Amino acid sequence: VIVDIFLIFSNVGGKQSEYGRQRMALLGAGLGNTTALDFVFVIDSSRSIRPEDYDKVKTFIINLLQFLDVGLNSTRVGLLQYGSVVQPEFSLNTHTSKAQVEEAVRNMQHLATGTMTGLAIQYTMEVAFTEEQGARPKSLQIPRIAMIVTDGRPQDTVEEIAAEAREAGIQIFAIGVGRVEMKTLKAIGSQPHSEHVHLVANFSQIETLISVFNVCACSLGSDMCKVVEHQCQHICVSSPASYRCRCRKGFTLNPDGKTSCSEAVIMDLVFVIDGSKSLGPANFELVKQFVNSIVDSLNVSRMVTRVGLIQFSTKVRTEFSLGQHAAAQDVKRAVNQMQYMGRGSMTGSALRHMFQFSFSEKEGARLNVPRVCIVFTDGRSQDDVSEWASKAKTSGVTMYALGVGKAIEQELREIASEPAEMHLYYAEDFEKMGEITKKLKFIKMPLCSFWEPFCAGVSVISLFKLETLENQVVNK
Question: Locate the VWFA domain: which residues (predicted)?
Answer without folding.
Answer: 38-213, 268-440
